[in-house]
Design goal:
It comes from Dictyobacter formicarum. The chain has about 180 residues and is an alpha+beta fold. It contains 6 helices and 9 strands. It has 2 domains: about 70 residues, Arc Repressor Mutant, subunit A; about 80 residues, ADP-ribosylation fold, CATH 3.20.170. Strand 7 and strand 8 form a beta hairpin. The chain is elongated, with a radius of gyration of 18 Å.
């Protein structure tokens, strides 16, 4: 029986980002867990996945689109550990001059006051291109608001940025001073 890789990816996200304990997983301080333990937990989670192998996990990671997982030295983690209590540590990096953030009109009013905040996530998520930010905003609204982040200026003023993956940047917060509505 062929494994539905998209369903597997969604379940991996749930296990690695939201509810590792419900899968019997304990993530380390940086969100890593043994890939063998993840495979074992996934096999127990769904009877159709009894023949699941690490190669299936690797196929999920090779799917087109946003890269969500990192596999290194027999361990795996989600790039973003949204609701796990421990904060995933990241190395700081110098961002490009501009980054983008897509939001809703209602959230934009609050952002004008307080800036960009993680809002239940571990970091603020920023896109390298306007189109990705627009796509993110459209998940929540039919009237997206796109913000341009003066990322390099903010970095030079002491705000730390972290590379999330190929096209996503992370920050702790972004004050309104560095945001412009596009």
């Amino acid at each position: 029986m062929e494994i539905d890789l998209r369903q597997l990816s969604r379940t991996m996200a749930y296990a690695l980002r939201h509810q590792p304990a419900s899968f019997g997983l304990i993530l380390d301080d940086e969100g890593w867990v043994s890939v063998d333990l993840l495979v074992s937990a996934l096999r127990q989670h769904r009877s159709a996945w009894q023949q699941l192998h690490v190669s299936d996990i690797e196929q999920v990671m090779a799917l087109p689109g946003k890269k969500r997982y990192e596999l290194r030295a027999g361990r795996i983690r989600a790039y973003y550990g949204h609701s796990i209590q421990q904060r995933m540590r990241r190395e700081t990096a110098v961002p490009p001059a501009r980054l983008f953030h897509g939001t809703t009109p209602a959230a934009y009013k609050q952002i004008c006051q307080s800036g960009l905040l993680p809002m239940g996530r571990q970091y603020v998520h920023l896109s390298e291109d306007r189109e990705t930010a627009l796509q993110v905003a459209r998940r929540r609204t039919s009237q997206p608001v796109i913000l341009v982040v003066a990322a390099l200026d903010a970095h030079q003023a002491g705000i730390q940025f972290y590379l999330g993956n190929d096209s996503v940047w992370l920050a702790d917060t972004i004050p309104p001073l560095y945001l412009t509505r596009q």
